[in-house]
UniProtKB/TrEMBL annotation:
Alphabetized UniProt keyword annotations: Hydrolase, Nucleus, Repressor, Transcription, Transcription regulation
Matching PANTHER family: REPRESSOR OF RNA POLYMERASE III TRANSCRIPTION MAF1, REPRESSOR OF RNA POLYMERASE III TRANSCRIPTION MAF1 HOMOLOG
Family recorded in the similarity comment: Belongs to the MAF1 family.
GO biological process: negative regulation of transcription by RNA polymerase III
GO terms of molecular function: hydrolase activity; RNA polymerase III core binding
Domain of life of the native organism: Eukaryota
InterPro entries in the cross-refs: Maf1 (IPR015257), Maf1_sf (IPR038564)
Protein name: Repressor of RNA polymerase III transcription
Listed GO CC annotations: nucleus
Keyword Calcium: no
Subcellular location: Nucleus
Major localization class: nucleus
Organism, scientific name: Davidia involucrata
Native organism taxonomy: Eukaryota, Viridiplantae, Streptophyta, Embryophyta, Tracheophyta
Length: 224
């Protein structure tokens, strides 16, 4: 997976790097990748493929038939491996299981993505409109994604892991969403992570850190 730079995405990323709404802050990041193996990707891909085949070989009648059916398809396995490899590139220090990750991926449509975006990003969208002379944020996002991955040809996935398997969760997170736009023909993928943080929790965490450092400074000055 090779990281790709696209100016249309950079403009949105600059805006979503920090949208302060008073008690809350909204952040987001778009990243584009080419689905061509680079560096350790081949080794990781082989390992993930082996994990899936091992699971299929040991699967029982009690296992989910839909999961077994999905993983038995070579095309589906390849898509899942690309998605998991993208997660590895985004969070290289986190270990992802292909079989477990599949449980948290859901196939979406542009309409289902739009519904979530319109609901949770409404305030950020207002800030964007004020800063960009009335141009809607969702329209700008659509054009940027379409330029990179041609949305009409895309498969869209959401990734919603439980708390134990979520490397995206930050302290003070109120909500968080992760979407992947994958064009099979272009072998190109865009990830979009957007989330909301409580500024009160974040500020409390900062105060805790400062107090902790001050306590240690006091101990350092003491003649033990």
């Amino acid at each position: 997976m090779k990281y790709l730079e696209y100016t249309p995405l950079d403009r949105i990323n600059d805006f979503l790097s920090h949208v302060n709404l008073g008690a809350r802050t909204i952040k987001g990041c778009l990243e584009a990748y080419s689905c061509k193996h680079t560096g350790t990707d081949k080794k990781l891909s082989f390992s993930l493929e082996h994990e899936i085949r091992d699971y299929l070989g040991k699967s029982l009648d009690t296992d989910s038939s839909s999961l077994v059916e999905y993983l038995s398809s070579g095309s589906s396995r390849k898509t899942l491996i690309y998605l998991v490899l993208t997660l590895y590139h985004m969070y290289p220090d986190y270990g992802f299981s292909a079989v477990k990750a599949h449980q948290f991926f859901t196939e979406e449509s542009w309409d289902s993505f739009k519904e979530i975006f319109d609901t949770y990003m409404i305030e950020a969208s207002k800030e964007w409109v004020e800063a960009n002379e009335g141009s809607p944020l969702l329209d700008t996002l659509y054009k940027a994604l379409d330029e990179v991955v041609k949305l009409a040809e895309c498969e869209i996935y959401s990734y919603n892991p439980d708390s134990d398997a979520d490397p995206f969760v930050e302290r003070g997170a109120i909500w968080s969403f992760n979407f992947f736009f994958y064009n099979r023909k272009l072998k190109r993928l865009v990830s979009f992570h957007f989330y909301c943080l409580s500024n009160l929790v974040a500020e409390g965490f900062l105060m805790d850190e400062l107090c902790y450092e001050e306590d240690w400074e006091i101990f350092d000055d003491m003649d033990m």
